[in-house]
């Protein structure tokens, strides 16, 4: 995980969650409270997305990685953990425009599913990955 865009306290919390889960297969209550404290209203919906195994990691033969998260509305959002970006409207509004949140529930779900080993894996061709990226640009423009 490239957490260079997250505050150190958030990175440390995700590390603690990963460590606790590896040791006990659970996330202790104090770390869940920490999640709510640091990530606010995104925390519980993000955990729900992880529980529903809504996060898929797409990997191309060259090693390029992209995440797709099936949102609670049934829409598929593309997340870029490397640059801390999601294509959902909440990210554009709450994170970019208003700076009310560190991230949206979709990116938090990506980080949590990495920490908990809960990503579904989907190998894709370079062409498929490119098409996904191009489709996202068309949606925005």
TrEMBL record:
> Could you confirm whether the keyword Metal-binding appears in this record?
yes
Name all SWIM-type domain ranges: 77-115
Q: Which PANTHER family match?
A: ZINC FINGER SWIM DOMAIN-CONTAINING PROTEIN 7
Starting at the broadest rank, the lineage of the source organism is: Eukaryota, Metazoa, Chordata, Craniata, Vertebrata
Q: Which GO terms describe its cellular component?
A: Shu complex
An example Gene Ontology molecular-function term: zinc ion binding
In terms of Pfam families, this protein maps to: SWIM
Question: Which Gene Ontology biological process is one annotated for this entry?
Answer: double-strand break repair via homologous recombination
Source organism superkingdom: Eukaryota
Q: Which residues cross the membrane?
A: none
Entry protein name: Zinc finger SWIM-type containing 7
Q: Which organism is it from?
A: Zonotrichia albicollis (White-throated sparrow)
Which UniProt keyword terms apply here?
Answer: Metal-binding, Zinc, Zinc-finger
């Amino acid at each position: 995980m490239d957490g260079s865009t997250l505050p150190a306290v958030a990175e440390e919390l995700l590390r603690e969650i990963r460590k606790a889960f590896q040791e006990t297969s659970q996330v202790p209550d104090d770390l869940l409270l920490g999640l709510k404290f640091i990530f606010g209203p995104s925390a519980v919906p993000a955990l729900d997305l992880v529980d529903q195994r809504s996060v898929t990691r797409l990997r191309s033969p060259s090693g390029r990685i992209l995440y797709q998260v099936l949102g609670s509305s049934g829409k598929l959002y593309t997340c870029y953990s490397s640059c801390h970006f999601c294509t959902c409207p909440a990210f554009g509004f709450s994170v970019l425009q208003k700076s009310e949140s560190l991230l949206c529930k979709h990116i938090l779900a990506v980080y949590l599913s990495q920490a908990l080993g809960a990503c579904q894996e989907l190998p894709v061709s370079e062409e498929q990955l490119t098409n996904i990226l191009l489709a996202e640009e068309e949606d925005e423009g």
